[in-house]
Structures are given as C-alpha cells and as structure tokens.
Automatic annotation (TrEMBL):
InterPro entries: HD/PDEase_dom (IPR003607), HD_GYP_dom (IPR037522). Residues 217-417 form the HD-GYP domain. SUPFAM superfamilies: HD-domain/PDEase-like. This is HD-GYP domain-containing protein. The lineage of its organism: Bacteria, Pseudomonadati, Gemmatimonadota, Gemmatimonadia, Gemmatimonadales. It comes from Gemmatimonas phototrophica. Gene3D superfamilies: Hypothetical protein af1432.
Length: 489
C-alpha cells in the first residue's frame, strides 16, 4: 500500500500540481468540508449525511486512483492533497480555512487514507475531528485521537503529526490568489485567537500582527480584490469571517481617511480583535437561532468590556494593545453614548472606534445571521447608516465609507434601465461617480443568464451626457438564486 507523503516524505511546498490533480484535490477538499458540516448538523442516519459521506468517498477514490494514494495535510497556511498544493478559488477558500483550523485544533498535520474507508469509518473520523480533545495540550491530541479511533475499531486512517514548517510560499501567487491567501490566513489566526481565549489559553499577538500586515499590504496594493472578498458570508464561521471582514473594511476606510501605514496596522489589529470578548460569551448563546431574550442580550453585550479583559490576558511582551482595547470597549457605544456599555461620564469615542463601528455595522447588517432572516441589501444598509442618526455613527466617517464603497457597494445585485441584472464588482475609480460602479452583467433583459466576465463601467456614455446604462434599483440576490461569492473568484 502506498501513501504519498507519508513516512516522513513531506509534501513539497512548491508542488502546484497539474490541472487535473488540482481539480480532483479541490473536489476532495470541498466534499470533506461539506461532510463535516453535515455530520455536525444532522444525526448520522440522516440522508444528507449519507449523501455527503458518499460524495467524500467518491472524491477520495478519484484522488487515490490517479495518484496511488490520498493524503491531506496542512503545511503552514496551505493545504496539500498528496503533493499538490491546493490553489484557492472562490468555491474552496472557506472550506480550506475551516479545514486548516480543524487540523490545528485537533493538533494534527493531516490525515492519510489506507485503502478505501467504509462510510462508517468516515463518519467516526469526522465526528472525532470536529470535537477534538481540547482539554489536552496540543502535542497530546494526536495520540488521544488515535486511541479514540482504535477503540472505535476504525483503522482506515493515519494521522500525521503537525509540522512547524511555515515557509512563505506566496511568491508565485497572482494578486487575486494572494488576496485570498491573506484572507484565509487571517481567518485561521482569528479562529486561533478566539478559540484559545475561550479555553483560557493565550496565543501571542505575533501571528495576528502578521495577518493584519498582510491585509494592510493588500489594501495598499489592490484594495478592490480584498474588498471583494468581504462578500464572503459563512454562517458556521460567522464570528471569524465577520472579524476579518471588519478588519478589511476598517483598514480600507482608514486609508481613505488618510491614516499612515503604522496607524493602519494598529487600526487593523483593533478591528480584527474587536469582538474577541465573544470568546467569553457562552457558545450556545452566540449560536442561538431566532430572537434573544432580554437577559440573553445583556450577556451578549458584555462582549465589549470582556474584550478588554481578554486583551489583558494576551501575552504581549509588556506592550498592551491600548487602542484595540478602547475599540473593543467602545464599538457599540454610539457617538451619542446611547449604546452599550453605559458610561457615567460624557466621552468622545476614539477615531478607531468610530471607524470600526461603521465597518462593523455594515458587515453585520449585510450578513444573514441567526436573528436576521433576510439581510438588507448593501445599498439599504448604507442608506440607513447615512440617514438614521439613531445608529450613532460618525457622519464624517460614514461619508468616507460611502465614498469608499459607492452608493452600491461591492456585491450588490442591481437592475439597470436596460432591464439587465448585474452585480457590482468594484467602486468606480472616479470617486465622484458614486452611483456608477464597475459592474458585471448577469442576465439579459429577458432573464437569460449571461456568462460573460467582461466588466462594464457605468460612467460609459453613448453620446455626451447620455449614459449607456444606469442603475434603477437593487435586488435581493437570493430571489435569483445568485451566490455573490461566486463572482469574486
Ligand atoms: Fe461587537
Ligand atoms: Fe462585530
């Protein structure tokens, strides 16, 4: 029995793999992630679980048949299937991020398959992996998991130890993939910080700062790619995805407001950690579906000052992230202090808090969340932020935000006066053209799907003063079964 990558041979970091290898690897990883979700959500005998496990088995077979074995490992921030480094694309980067996180929490570097595991073996493995023995230190978890598998009579898998290898493999990535890699890394780091804070352990800030540095660099070089990624919505990973989105939006906004690079790094850190206090709120409350009871809401609201305490517990080498603490404390306070926590004396919110409140309010309101059946369109949210003073946002910061995103932010689905349906891909580089973003047309005037990646600039005119196309209203993408993330590949 051969198992590429096992017995000490490391998957090579430079292994990009051929296109067919990429395809099989990608299918396997996406199937694995779906199967994990199914196992988490439904009882084992549920048809959804059976189907997901069968699909996982099939995709693993395909990899095994063409490559003589199947091993999935984590090397630094990358996933490898055998020798193939998985390229990040729109359909897999959420899956990659959550598998990376799962391996790290389980204290393993990956898994290899002996022969063809039976469906039952897959279910047992995935159930164990998604509730790893967190009560043990990381280095002991692999042995714990192995013995659990043994006692469940599952002998189909080899668990690899985790490696410290963390080479910088970003050099051969194109700008878009680099942005996605930065996003995945940030997601992973955020999860690490929040889950270890939950367990009463404190990770250092070094990795977090490195991730923030990546975001700041991406915003400074190619902000459109990075902002496009904030259209990612993921219910299961809500807190992490939200933190990364808020970080990206806050940094982009800070740049608009003229902050220096050093300030942007500081702001980005504060934004990434703004909800760290949620690590001290019970999980069942965070994940509760439907309306919260008044007393539950009060508990959730403690995440502001709990965030300050959580940051006191971080080992920072003596230098406390004061501005991050202030922002965690103030980000729901509102400029008129009508929010929470309540303060006895009048105060002015810090600039970082004002910026983070705007980014936070925008991302939260545009996300389908537990207590929001249908999220507002991004354009509705912006209008509310601008016109509703009760939200307590700083009007100057909101104005800068609208300047950044345009009136129709990235990911908005719009109807044009030609009756075509389109999606907003980027704000217009001409900052005065707030209502004329760069779009991609999705459907023609009869509702036929168009698969044309060409971008259209809405400032284009047929004759002087007469625009070729104009937005007449926004639409709910769900009505058309449109998955926004698909368009930001
Ligand atoms: Fe918050
Ligand atoms: Fe938040």
């Amino acid at each position: 029995m051969t198992m590429p990558g096992s017995a000490g041979t490391m998957a090579r970091p430079d292994g990009i793999g051929d296109p067919s290898g990429q395809k099989a690897a990608r299918a396997f990883v996406v199937a694995m992630n779906s199967a994990i979700r199914a196992v988490r959500l439904y009882p084992v005998e549920n048809a959804a679980v059976q189907k997901a496990i069968a699909e996982l088995g099939n995709t693993a077979d395909r990899v095994r048949e063409s490559e003589g074995g199947c091993a999935l490992r984590r090397v630094g921030d990358y996933l490898f299937v055998n020798e193939t480094r998985l390229r990040l694309t729109f359909d897999n980067y959420a899956a990659v991020a959550s598998l990376l996180g799962m391996f790290r929490e389980a204290g393993i570097g990956g898994i290899g398959l002996f022969d063809k595991p039976q469906p039952r073996a897959w279910v047992v493995l995935l159930s164990f992996l998604q509730s790893p023995p967190l009560e043990y230190p990381e280095e002991d978890r692999l042995a714990q998991l192995s013995s659990r598998l043994d006692s469940a009579q599952v002998h189909d898998f080899e668990l690899f130890p985790s490696t410290d290898e963390n080479e910088d493999l970003d050099t051969d990535l194109d700008a878009k993939e680099k942005a996605r890699q930065t996003y995945v890394r940030s997601l992973d780091v955020t999860r690490e910080v929040i889950t270890s804070a939950r367990l009463g352990r404190s990770p250092g800030l070094k990795r977090v700062k490195r991730a923030v540095q990546g975001i700041v660099d991406s915003i400074l070089t190619d902000s459109a790619s990075m902002i496009g990624l904030t259209t990612l919505r993921d219910f299961d990973e809500y807190t992490f995805v939200h933190s990364v989105n808020v970080c990206i939006l806050a940094v982009a906004l800070g740049r608009r407001l003229g902050l220096t690079k050093i300030q942007l790094l500081d702001l980005g850190l504060a934004a990434l950690l703004h909800d760290i206090g949620k690590s001290r709120v019970p999980l069942d409350l965070l994940n509760k579906r439907g309306q919260l009871e008044p007393e539950e809401r009060l508990v959730l609201q403690t995440h502001t000052w709990q965030g300050v305490l959580a940051m006191f517990a971080l080992p920072t080498g003596g230098v406390r992230p004061w501005r991050s603490m202030t922002a965690a404390y103030e980000h729901h306070m509102r400029t008129d202090l009508s929010g929470y926590p309540k303060v006895a004396r009048p105060r002015k919110l810090s600039l970082y808090s004002k910026i983070i409140s705007v980014a936070d309010g925008f991302d939260a309101a545009t996300t389908t969340r537990v207590y929001q059946d249908s999220p507002w369109t991004p354009a509705d949210v912006l209008r509310g932020m601008r016109d509703n003073p009760r939200l307590g946002l700083d009007p100057v910061v909101v104005k800068a935000f609208i300047n950044l995103t345009g009136i129709y932010p990235v990911g908005t689905v719009v109807v044009l006066d030609t009756f075509e349906l389109a999606i907003v891909m980027a704000a217009n580089p001409d900052a005065t053209a707030l209502s004329r973003p760069i779009i991609r047309i999705l459907m023609d005037d009869r509702g036929n799907l168009i698969d044309d990646p060409t971008l259209v600039d809405l400032t284009a005119q047929v004759t002087t003063g007469q625009f070729a196309r104009t937005i007449i209203r926004t639409e709910d993408p769900q009505r058309y079964g449109i998955n926004i993330g698909d368009y930001f590949a």
